[in-house]
Amino acid sequence: MQWWDEYYRAVDGGQIEKFSTWYADDIVSRFGNMPVTRSKRALVDSLTQFFQQFVRLDHVWGAILYNGDLAVGEGVCSYTLHDGRKIWIPVVTVIERRKDGLICRSSVYFDAAPLFTQDNEAAHVPDAFMFAQAPGGTALRAGA
Amino acid sequence: MTGTNDTRWWFEHFEGVDARDMDRWFAGLSDDVVVRFSNWPVIRGKAALKSHVIEFNKLFVTISHKHGQLFTDGNLAAGEGVVTFTMHDGREISIPGTTVMEHRDGLIRRIAAYLDFGPLFAPAADNVTVSEPSTFMPRA
């Protein structure tokens, strides 16, 4: 899953204009319970707003399953907030690519609430890392 | 990896959940099952899960799952879907999400559900809903 790793390296680089080159113009995207976006422009606008919540993000992936150009990854994302706090949130992402390699849909399933609270206890997700790595500490990659 | 691509266990699990028949769906779980529901603390063991489910079920009257894309390599499966809750005041709340489960030797060993349960806990007067929860479900 080289493309998955390359894409998320770009995402974790934090430069939206760079990683949005992966997106098809008509990409359909969902982030949690937020409204679905239906174009690259709308997604970039939404991400620009979302990225204002933190100064850095880093993904660690555990299981990744795929079937051709459709893949699902289970992991955890850490967000470093403007006040220096680091928050870990478990996440699953489903990504579909077109034949030309561009991403035509992205669905991110998570609960972003810890990013929006000042209460450290409420922001802490216990055992957030638990399923971010397969037993033995290595990522599991399986697919066809 | 070992295992088969027979995914009947996946659907039987959710049929039991939707029927709210704990005996039925708990029969498919290992005693040491490990469960994550979103950002909540991880639950370890069938007994702890049972207590949790009893409390969670008090929040709503019915629960039903609609299944979308299912990925599997046999022992590990991840399924995208929408879960709909009918609340005690009659409201229906649908939330999109993905569940990941591991299944070995005929039993489910771990369940991880990734979704935002926030709308279930919002005041009814706010009428919080998720727009287009079924966007990525197969068309009927």
List keywords for this structure.
heterodimer, A: alpha/beta, 6-stranded mixed β-sheet, 4 helices, B: 140 residues, 41% strand
Description:
The complex is a heterodimer of chains A (144) and B (140). In chain A, 22% of the residues lie in helices and 40% in strands. Chain A has 144 residues and is α/β, with parallel strands linked by helices. Chain A has four helices and six strands, in the order ααβαββββαβ. In chain A, β4 and β5 form a beta hairpin. Mean pLDDT of chain A is 90; it is low at 134-139. The longest helix of chain A has 12 residues, at 2-13. The radius of gyration of chain A is 15 Å and the shape is globular. The N and C termini of chain B lie far apart (34 Å). With 140 residues, chain B is of the alpha+beta class. In chain B, 32% of the residues are buried. Chain B has helices spanning 8-19, 22-26, 46-57, 118-121, and strands spanning 29-37, 43-44, 60-72, 76-87, 92-104, 107-114. The interface between A and B is medium-sized, with 36 and 33 residues.
Into which percentage range does the β-strand content of chain A fall? Answer: 35-45%
Number of E strands of chain B:
6
Assembly context of the chains: heterodimer
Mean pLDDT of chain B: 92
Q: What is the percent of helical residues of chain A?
A: 10-25%
Summarize the structure.
The complex is a heterodimer of chains A (144) and B (140). Chain A is an alpha/beta fold. Chain A has helices at residues 2-13, 16-19, 40-50, 120-123, and strands spanning 23-31, 54-67, 70-81, 86-97, 103-109, 141-143.
What layout of secondary structure does this protein have?
The complex is a heterodimer of chains A (144) and B (140).
Chain A lengths: L1 H12 L2 H4 L3 E9 L8 H11 L3 E14 L2 E12 L4 E12 L5 E7 L10 H4 L17 E3 L1
Parallel strand pairs in A: 1-5, 2-6
Antiparallel strand pairs in A: 2-3, 3-4, 4-5
Chain B lengths: L7 H12 L2 H5 L2 E9 L5 E2 L1 H12 L2 E13 L3 E12 L4 E13 L2 E8 L3 H4 L19
Parallel strand pairs in B: 1-6
Antiparallel strand pairs in B: 1-2, 3-4, 4-5, 5-6
